[in-house]
Amino acid sequence: MSVLGLGRMGSALACALVKKGYDVTVWNRSADKQTPAGARRAGDLDEAFEADVVVTCLATYEVQRPLLSKNIKALVNLTSGTPEEARVTAEWARDNGVEYVDGVIMAVPQQIGTPGARIFFAGNEEHHVLDAFGEPVYVGQDAGLAALYDLGLLGVMWATFAGYLQAVALTGTEGVTPQQLTPMVADWLRELAEMLPEMGEETQHRDYETEVSALDINVSGLRMLAEASRRQGVDSALPQALHDLYQRAQQKGHGTHSIASVIEVIR
Ligand SMILES: NC(=O)c1ccc[n+]([C@@H]2O[C@H](COP(=O)([O-])OP(=O)(O)OC[C@H]3O[C@@H](n4cnc5c(N)ncnc54)[C@H](OP(=O)(O)O)[C@@H]3O)[C@@H](O)[C@H]2O)c1
């Protein structure tokens, strides 16, 4: 088994393989990265390619591409990228007789090797070593699907974290501490998560009738959040961008509809 890339994640993957009893060879561009205990450092890439399976975990596909070779027998790609990049790599693998699994890691390095670490994988259902890293979840035949799920879920994370930081900054202008605010946000997020199945169904059926909260009232709320942010001296780019997005749905005639109708603009 070989691992290319000894960054934070690649090192965690190599350690997990060693713990599972695999014979592990590692390769990294720079010499300064430590060789995980129990693993062997490859002298060059060709030596790393002698393994039955090569796991890659590099910064991007762009830096990974020139390293790949048809001397690889089976490639388990855990470098993050776009669906298109995953599909192109799958095609390259097919053309060069390399067995290919495309995966994305929905966990941080510290979780690798524990049951909570989900690894979405696509294309080939044979997933080789993924069990050693956590919980493999097969998402479908199209090699781009794992990357698609990855980016969708990361988008939820980035938007949520930015919303939280906006709240910390805004309430912080009046001395509210993160310790006071955070439990409220955590409760709020749990309640919001419960609303998602219904919202998902609304987007599917394109039926946005609501007795709960109309888009009009939410556009007003976002205008207030953007204005309050400015008046309290914090950045208003995020609430303003959300206001503008929601307002476009309102202008399309969804003012009395639910928030789910914003999908009509996003789609
Ligand atoms: N860290 C996380 O929480 C996390 C979570 C999920 C997915 N991932 C994914 O895992 C992958 C690796 O992330 P990471 O956190 O391990 O990043 P990292 O610590 O920054 O490591 C990056 C790795 O890429 C290598 N690299 C960068 N440019 C290169 C080049 N031009 N040629 C050859 N090697 C090059 C680095 O080698 P050098 O040591 O020589 O610079 C290093 O091994 C990324 O695709 C990331 O999206 C990470």
UniProtKB/TrEMBL annotation:
For this UniProt record, the keywords arranged alphabetically read as follows:
Oxidoreductase
What region holds the NADPH-dependent reductive aminase-like C-terminal domain? 142-267
Q: Report a single Gene Ontology molecular function.
A: oxidoreductase activity
Pfam families according to UniProt = NAD_binding_2 (PF03446), RedAm-like_C (PF21761)
Start and end of every 6-phosphogluconate dehydrogenase NADP-binding domain? 2-102
Lineage, top-rank taxon, reads Bacteria
Q: What family is this?
A: Belongs to the HIBADH-related family.
This chain belongs to the protein called 3-hydroxyisobutyrate dehydrogenase
Species of provenance: Lentzea guizhouensis
